[in-house]
Amino acid sequence: MHLSPEPQSPFHALTVRQVLEELRSGTEGLDPGEAGARLVAYGPNRLQEKRRHSPLRLLARQFTDLLIVVLAAAAVISGFLGEWLDASAIIAIILLNGSIGFLQEYRAERSLEALKRMIAPRARVIRGGTDAEVDARCLVPGDLLVISEGDRVSADARLLETVALAADEAALTGESVPVSKDALVVCARDADLQERVNMVFLGTVVTRGRGRAVVTATGMRTELGQIARAVAEERVEATPLQRKLAVLGTQLSVAALVIVALIFLTGTARGLPLLAMFFIAVSLAVAAIPEGLPAVVTITLSLGVQRMARRHAIIRRLSAVETLGAATVICTDKTGTLTRNEMTVRRIFAEGRFVRVTGEGYMVRGEFMGDTTSEAVVPMEHPSFQAMLEIGVLCNNSSLAIDPVEGTGTLTGDPTEGSLLVLAEKAGLDHRRLRDAHPFRQEIPFDPARKLMTVVRTTGDRSRAYVKGAPEVVVVLCTRVLYGGEIRLLNEEEKEAVLTATHQMASGSLRVLGFAFRDLSGGESEEEIEQDLIFTGLAGMMDPPRAEAKEAVQACHRAGVRVVMVTGDNPATAGAVARELDLAGGGAPVVMTGAELDRCTDNELTDRVETVDVYARVSPGHKLQIVDALRARGEVVAMTGDGVNDAPAITRADIGIAMGITGTDVTKEASDMVITDDNFASIQRAVEEGRVIYGNILRAVKYLLACNTGELVTIFVAIIAGLASPLTPIQILWMNLVTDSPPALALATNPGDPDVMQRPPPDPKGRILSGRLALEMILVGLLMALVTLAAFAWYRASPAGAPLAGTVAFSVIILFQKFYALSVSGPDNGPIGLRDLFRNRWLWAAILFGIASQVLVTTWAPALPIFDTVPLGATDWAVVFLLSSLAFFVPEAVKRVRNRTGAGVG
Description:
Layout: H1 16-23, H2 32-42, H3 55-60, H4 66-80, H5 84-108, H6 111-116, E1 122-127, E2 130-135, E3 144-148, E4 156-168, H7 170-173, E5 179-180, E6 199-200, E7 205-217, H8 223-233, H9 240-269, H10 274-288, H11 292-309, E8 313-315, H12 319-326, E9 329-332, E10 344-350, E11 353-357, E12 368-370, H13 383-394, E13 399-402, E14 409-412, H14 415-426, H15 431-437, E15 440-447, E16 452-459, E17 462-469, H16 471-477, E18 478-483, E19 486-489, H17 492-507, E20 511-520, H18 526-529, E21 533-542, H19 549-558, E22 562-566, H20 571-581, E23 591-593, H21 594-598, H22 602-608, E24 614-616, H23 620-632, E25 637-641, H24 647-652, E26 655-659, H25 665-670, E27 673-675, H26 680-720, H27 729-739, H28 741-747, H29 771-796, H30 802-824, H31 834-837, H32 841-859, H33 863-867, H34 874-884, H35 886-900
Parallel strand pairs: 9-22, 9-25, 18-21, 22-24, 23-24, 25-26, 26-27
Antiparallel strand pairs: 1-2, 1-3, 3-7, 4-5, 4-6, 4-7, 8-27, 10-11, 10-21, 11-12, 13-14, 15-16, 16-17, 17-20, 18-19, 20-21
Helix pairs in contact: 4-5, 4-10, 5-11, 9-10, 9-26, 10-27, 11-26, 11-28, 12-26, 13-14, 16-17, 19-26, 22-23, 26-28, 26-29, 26-30, 27-28, 27-30, 28-32, 29-30, 29-34, 30-32, 30-34, 30-35
C-alpha cells in the first residue's frame, strides 16, 4: 500500500479520523504483511550516520597545513645540519598538534552515536488486532503504538486516546516540566513543537498515564531525525584565532624565507664564502620560522583547560578556550542556566489579601510578609492560609528530602509540586508528618481537560477531598469559601476578586494554582467529589533567576558581550526573567517569538537580531536561524543547550556549550565545552579565563615575532654593512633553542589583568599582527639589531678582535630577548609595576635558565669550541647586561609616555 513520505497536512492539525485515513490504518492496526511491506518502503526506524572518515585519513589530513609542511622541512634541514635535538623538537611539535586535531575530529563524529541510543529497543504495538512487542527498528507509519508511564517513545506518533497522559519532552524542547497530552485536541497548523499536545515524539519519555497513538514518522523523518541530519551536515570550522594564526604563519614563513634568501644572495654577492652563507641562511630559516608557536598555543590552551575545569567548565576542544575569549554574543537557555530550575512560590492570596514569600529554590527557610509592607505574616495563624498550605501538601505526589543543617531540600517529583512542599515547610508544616496523619485513599489524577487534580485522604472516620488546579476552573466549582476561620457562601463578587488576583499574579509571569477542599460522606462519584468545593486561596510561583546570574550578565555587558535568552518558554515568563536579570542593560527587553521568526526572511532577521534580547517559544530550526543571523553580522557566537534540540545550533555556533547536569549525551558530544554546574555564572567565568588565555597567546606571539625579526635584521644589517655575520650557524640554532620556546611557554602561565573583563572582545575580523603590533615588532627588532651590532662592531675594533666580539654579540642577543620577555609579561594597559614584575615565577625560571645556559656555553671549556665562544670577563658581562636591559626599559618608557599622552593601549 503506497503512502506519501510527507503528509499533505501536519498530523497535529488533523482529527483522529483524518489521521487514520491518511495513514491508511485503523483501530486494529496494520496487518503484519502490510507492516512488512511498509518497512521495505520506508526503511528501518533508526537514525542514519554520516559517512565516517577512516581514522588513518583523519590522521593524515592533520598534516596538510602549509605551516606544518614548512616546519617539517625545517626539521629535515636541522637534521641535515646535524642538529638532531632541534629536529626532534620540531617533529614532536608536529606530532603533538596532529594528534590533538585527530582526537578532536574523531570525538566529534561520535555525536550521532548518542542520538541512536535514544531510540527504545522494543515497542508495544497492535497489529492485526493483536497486542505484540516488536523491535523498535521495525516500526512503520500507520503502526498502532501503545504507551504507558515509564516508556520511551519509539517514533513520532499522533495520539488516538489518552488517559492522564504526560510526557517529558525536555530532550526536544529544553523545558523540564512534563507536557500534558490530549488526543482530542486539534492543534493549529503552525503550532510550535511544545504546543502539539496531541503528539508524542521519538526519544521522549512518558511520565504519567497511558495512551494509544498511530505512528506518523520513523527514523530520519522524525523530529529527532531532523536534528540528527542537521548535526551530521555541520562542518567544524576553524576558530577566529586558528584562522588568524594560519594566515599569520603562512605570511611569516614566506616572509622569513624571502628574507633568508635575500641574506644569502647579498652575502654571496659581497664575496662571503658560499658554503658559509648557505649554512647561515639555513640556520636562519630554522630560527626565523616560528615553529614554537603551535606548541605555545597548544600548551597555553591546555593549561587554561586545567584552570577552567576547577571553575566548572570542562573543555572538549582546545580551540574552544580562545573562542570564548573572543565571544561577542552568548545565546543561553533560560531554565536551569539563568534560572535555578526550581519552582518557587513568590506570592499567595487568601482572605482577600496578598502575601509575599521570600527564599529561593528548595531552601525551606523564608519569610511571609505583607504584599506592600514589611509586616510579618504568620500563615498558621490564618485558617485560610493554613488550609491552602495543607492542600498543597496532601494533594501532591512529590517528596522532599531536607538537610536539617543547610535547610535545603532535594526534590523527587514535579517541580511545581515541590514548590508547594517547600512553601509548607517555610510556614512550619512538616509535610511528611502531615501526610502520615492523613492516609491516602484515592486520587483523581490531573487531566488537561479538567485542569484539576484531586486526592482523597482520611482522618479517623472522616474523608476529605483536596483539590488543586487552574484557578478559573477551581473557583467555578466552589460554592463556599473559608474566610477568617468560618466557612460561608462564595458570592459572585468574591469569585471575581479571585479571578482578578489570578490575573494580577499571572501578569507578573507567575504560574497560578487555586486550592479547595470538601468533606465527603463516602458515596460520591468522581464527578461529585469535585463539586460544591470550599475555596481557600491561590499560590503564584515561578522558576527564579539564579542569584549569581544577574552579576554574571552584568559582567558580560561590561566586557562587551551581549547575553541573549533563547527558550521554549512562553514570552511573558521569559520577559519577566529577562527584566529581573537586566538582560537589556537598563532598558526593557525586546522579546521575539518563534512565530515572529517564521514570518521573517533571512535578511530581515539579520537586521533585527542585534536588538532582540529574548527569543521565546522557539524550535530547533529557529535556534539555527538565530545563530546564522548573528554570525552573518560578524558576531562570535556561543550557544548553550541541554536538550537534543540544541545539538544542531551548538554545532553551528562558534562555540557550543552543553549543560553537564541536565544535558543529554547528544548535546555533550556535539559541544565544545560542558558546564558541570549548569550555571550561567560559570560560563561568564569561562569567558574571563578565555580572555586571559587569548591575551597570553598574543603575548607569546608578540615575543616570538619581535625576537625572530630582531635576529633576521641583525644578520641582514651586518652583511649589508660589510661586516661578517655576528653569529655562527650553531649559535643561531642554540639561540633558537633557548630563547624561543621557554619564555614563550612561561608567558602562557601569566595571570590575567584585573581589567580583562572591562574591555571589549577582540575583533574577530581583526588581524593578530595589527598595525601597532607590527610597529612594535619592527622597533624591537631594530633595537635588538642596534645594540647587538654596536657591541659587535665595538669589540671587533678592540684588540680582542673577532672571537670576543662574536661572543659578546651572541650573549647580548640572547639576554636581550630575556629582558624583552619580562616587559611583554606586564599588563596590557600600562607599564609593569613592582607587583607585576614578580607575578610570573615560571617566566623568571625561563629567564634564569637562559642566562645560566649562556654562562655555560661561554665558560665551560668543552663547550667553547663547539659554540665558537671565548670566556667573558666581569666588564664584558656588565656590558652585555647593560645593553640587553634596554629591551626592558625602552618598551616600558614607551608605555608610560603613551599612558600620559592618553594614547591608550589600542
